[in-house]
């Protein structure tokens, strides 16, 4: 592995990244803030994926048969190593993804929390006994690991998404083959290295690094020895992977796109709602599947909310994630910058007003100013497409019925947020919103202890919590006659 950056001391730490010369095809990883080359990695494909599957198939029986307590102890050691190297991991994450160092550090802590949670849950995979209809039988249910798991993770949370998928699979006894996003593979390599240092057997947790995921994804989806696919990314790619898994009726977990509504009712605490909107919209420069994509504000408080939000957003500092006062980092690449720019230009052309921000920041890097738009309607791209950037479109609404209809009028159903204080309204809206996760008077709701996932075309299955174990387990019914 060839490394060329000021982070050499992190990337060359043998406890973090293994040194290996690249031979044959390779791809580059660059810092989105500066364009600086961070590393050159081997560009793997179908042969490497098949080899990884074969290695996993060899170790799978022994790993599944290991006592749960032993797997738990390995995972606990992995957790402890992650926290021991949190500063190095955060630095790697910021370098390859761009988010502010404080956010990166928080993400690494979140990743460690998933590992810890599933280290504990590894010992709590329970079966059932239940009454038989006659005295000559006994009836049981046991749960067993599904087998080899193929996982594909995104670039926007390259540490926590790895942990959220890999940890439950390893906990129950499934070997994992991970294809991390090509933009942000370094922190995944580091996490795998720490897992090996913790004592995980070779072949139990493997990486396939690739600049283009189509061939690797197809091999994982169609290979008969891979029993489950877990993917986080776009709905378009999720549909493709689901089709590729269909012939084998393979287990699939999908965490896909979102278009989260953020609703502010006239009885809300406006200052709290502004703080929540900033959290839900501008964390990770808006590059979050649960990001508030459409901000609905009731007419009576619309102007007040918009003014306070713009004042708060105008104080957010944009820049390189290593600078201590920066709160919004770069977009992941030029394509993302073009999309966000196009969405804002389309909104302005159609009558939206820019209260703050509105364009690119600087001539180098992929920075976009945190932006607040008012007079937004549903004919604008910012209201009907997932912007995935630091742009807050504020839409006026009149009644509860009106905003529920507008909020649900989408193919997506991942996350939603609303602010209100009247209890009857809170229950009514929470039950009516067609989303898998709802934040009520809060802009952040992710936790390793809670089920993460969506409805409609935002995905299938849940990650995190005890429910996140179930997709990696097969249920087997045993009926035993008297001996």
From TrEMBL:
- Superkingdom, taxonomy of origin: Bacteria
Boundaries of each Aldehyde dehydrogenase domain copy? 25-477
Q: Per the record's keyword annotation, is Oxidoreductase included, yes or no?
A: yes
Q: Please, one GO biological process term? A: gamma-aminobutyric acid catabolic process
GO MF terms on file? succinate-semialdehyde dehydrogenase (NAD+) activity
- CDD domains per the UniProt record, alphabetical: ALDH_F5_SSADH_GabD
Annotated keywords: Oxidoreductase
Quick check: keyword Cytoplasm in the entry? no
InterPro entries the UniProt entry points to:
Ald_DH/histidinol_DH, Ald_DH_C, Ald_DH_N, Aldehyde_DH_dom, Aldehyde_DH_Superfamily, Succ_semiAld_DH
What's the family?
Belongs to the aldehyde dehydrogenase family.
Per its record, how is this protein called by name?
Answer: NAD-dependent succinate-semialdehyde dehydrogenase
Q: Which organism is it from?
A: Ferranicluibacter rubi
């Amino acid at each position: 592995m060839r490394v060329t950056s000021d982070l050499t001391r992190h990337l060359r730490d043998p406890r973090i990244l293994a040194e290996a010369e690249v031979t044959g095809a390779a791809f580059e990883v660059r810092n989105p803030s500066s364009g600086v080359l961070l590393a050159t990695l081997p560009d793997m494909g179908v042969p490497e994926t098949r080899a990884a599957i074969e290695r996993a198939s060899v170790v799978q029986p022994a790993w599944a048969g290991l006592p749960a307590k032993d797997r738990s102890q390995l995972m606990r050691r992995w957790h402890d190593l992650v926290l021991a190297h949190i500063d190095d991991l955060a630095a790697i994450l910021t370098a390859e993804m761009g988010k502010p160092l404080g956010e990166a550090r928080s993400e690494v802590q979140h990743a460690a929390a998933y590992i810890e949670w599933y280290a504990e849950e590894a010992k709590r995979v329970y079966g059932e006994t239940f009454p038989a209809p006659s005295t000559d039988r006994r009836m049981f249910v046991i749960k067993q690991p599904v087998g080899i798991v193929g996982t594909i993770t995104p670039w926007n949370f390259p540490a926590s998404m790895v942990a959220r998928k890999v940890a439950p699979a390893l906990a129950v006894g499934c070997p994992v083959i991970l294809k991390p996003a090509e933009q942000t593979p370094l922190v995944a390599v580091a996490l795998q290295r720490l897992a090996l240092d913790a004592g995980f057997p070779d072949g139990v947790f493997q990486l396939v690094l690739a600049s283009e995921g189509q061939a690797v994804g197809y091999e994982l989806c169609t290979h008969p020895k891979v029993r489950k696919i877990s993917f986080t990314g776009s709905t378009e790619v999720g549909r493709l992977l689901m089709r590729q898994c269909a012939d084998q009726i393979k287990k699939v977990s999908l965490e896909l796109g979102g278009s989260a509504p953020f609703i502010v009712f006239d009885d809300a605490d406006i200052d709290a709602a502004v703080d929540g909107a900033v959290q839900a919209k501008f964390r990770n420069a808006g590059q979050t599947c649960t990001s508030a994509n459409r901000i609905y504000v009731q007419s009576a408080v619309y102007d007040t909310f918009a003014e306070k939000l713009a004042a708060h957003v105008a104080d957010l500092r944009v820049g390189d994630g290593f600078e201590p006062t920066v709160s919004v980092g770069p977009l992941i690449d030029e394509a993302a910058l073009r999309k966000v720019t196009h969405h804002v230009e389309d909104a302005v052309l159609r009558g939206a007003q820019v209260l703050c921000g509105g364009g690119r920041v600087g001539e180098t890097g992929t920075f976009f100013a945190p932006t607040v738009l008012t007079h937004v309607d549903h004919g604008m791209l910012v209201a009907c497409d997932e912007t995935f950037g630091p742009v807050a479109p504020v839409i006026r609404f009149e009644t509860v019925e009106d905003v529920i209809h507008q909020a649900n009028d989408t193919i997506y159903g991942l996350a939603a947020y609303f602010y209100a204080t009247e209890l009857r309204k809170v229950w009514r809206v929470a039950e009516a919103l067609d989303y898998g996760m709802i934040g009520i008077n809060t802009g952040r709701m992710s936790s390793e202890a809670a089920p993460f996932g969506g409805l409609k075309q935002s995905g299938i299955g849940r990650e995190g919590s005890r429910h996140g174990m179930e997709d990696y387990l097969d249920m087997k019914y045993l009926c035993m006659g008297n001996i």
